Give the backbone structure.
Amino acid sequence: MLNSVTMGQYLPVNSPVHKMDPRAKLMVTVLTAVTVLVATNWMGILTVSLWIGLVLAATRIRLVLYWQIYKPLWLLLITSFVFQVVFTPGEPLLLLGLLSLSKTGLVAGGRMLWQMICLLLVAAVLTFSTTPIQLSTALERLLLPLGKLKIPVREFAMAINLALRFVPTLFDESRFLIAAQRSRGADFTRGGVRQRAKGLIPFLIPLLTNIFRRADELAVAMEIRCYRAGAERSTINELKFKLPDYLAVLANLIILIIAL
Amino acid sequence: MFCMPFVQTTKLTHIYFKGTPLETVALKDIDLEIPEGEFFALVGASGSGKSTLVQHFNGLLQPTSGRVSVFGDDISTRINRNSLWSKVGLVFQFPERQIFSSSVYEDIAFGPRNLGLDENEVKHRVETALKDVGLPAGILQIDPATLSGGISRRVAIAGILAMQTPALVLDEPGAGLDPQAKKQILLALKRLQLEKGTTIVLITHFLEDVVDFAGLVAVLKKGELIASGRPKQVLAQPELLLGAGLEPPFPVAFTRKLSSKGVRLNSSPVTIDDLARAIQRTYQNTGPGDR
Ligand SMILES: Nc1ncnc2c1ncn2[C@@H]1O[C@H](COP(=O)(O)OP(=O)(O)OP(=O)(O)O)[C@@H](O)[C@H]1O
Ligand SMILES: [Mg+2]
């Protein structure tokens, strides 16, 4: 489980999408997501599907890896589809006992399924192709105008940055602790609920202690480098919008208009 | 009589994240045999695959291809893998991170209790293990969170020793310990090997430790096994060691330096004693005119 590619993992690949300005990627992600949510006409649905397909191909990441992110989620997807179909009122096409399937129900269910699949794909493209640091820098830049309204954008971005930075640490520590305690005979899968909960202690306690210790070390390291909340900071890597970035955002705007 | 080895691997290959852009080949076609009752050292630079290799020995990892058998059982079957923890104790790198109990006693007792032993036996084993790592009995009731890093390390190691498994694998147990504490632990391991016939596999960066304690040594380089055999033979090859990113033991480095200055010893000493003897012999065999 901890050795397969998951949502949120950055995959280093040399692709046009990876080279894009992270701000453009963030904008395209949001625009595509909005388009997927508002698209009602067939033309819009078709164009945005094609657009997502094009972006997917441009990432040069094998489709199997996109497929992997659905593995833990397919049950959720199917259930929501069934609920949507069954509970949407409409002219019945087919009667199954007490349940009636209507054309409107099927269309509504299908549309929702399509939306969820698209949104997951779009999110996967963003995280597969963008490092956490790039992501939080882009967010900070795009939200900076809000700073005028006395919203602490920089601190917000730093908090996100630090949280993202701890994701791999959390994974590493979990992997280590599962392996280390299993080597001492711990079994998280045996017995009833009580016993299982108790079995988690040797895993959870050191996980928390170790993560807090790391956080503490990080705080000290930031402080001795003179980080202060609220202080003005500059960045090493200035972001730059290039032609492909403008084109991608423009294309996406056109698609949004088609779908409306 | 046919003697079953502790570990036997054939063409063991391990690839992390196979088929993704994150793919890393950690081990390539490793053929290795570790005899039972041996003190076996595994050396190699950072990232050469040492930790990955030993996690196959207690069933935590499975080979991507190739075969691994431990005490004669193939680890590709789940049943064999799941019982291995009780036969092969594994001390991870920086094991102090795994301590979770509120007293030293409880933490060391965790493994033995999972073996289903009665409390008297558990107590006896905890005390023996504590002595092996050189800690006083007074420490047993203390909260591990208040201990120094070096002492916590020894507590964590004691937690594995207390299971008294027929084989022990230790991943750099001495890293970051003071030289005396490290020596004490290695001596305890040697004692276990000699008195109880426990098989010991030791991962280390320090070739001096290999010379002092191990009967066999294997060298990994970028996931490949480039040498294995008796320490006196393997470690006497400075070029091989340097190529693998390792620092040759002092006597080997010294001999190499002498030969680069034109002084050739008539043997390849690996220990300080052998070096002294070799120098003496060379000195005696050279006539006054040659000096
Ligand atoms: N869980 C993992 N996921 C992905 N790659 C890994 C994982 N563990 C190790 N690797 C990679 O496999 C290779 C071998 O790593 P390994 O930890 O076995 O080396 P090592 O010899 O123990 O190094 P060190 O002396 O630094 O502990 C390295 O390239 C490492 O980056
Ligand atoms: Mg290692």
Notes: Residues 153-229 of chain A form one domain. The longest helix of chain A spans residues 153-182.
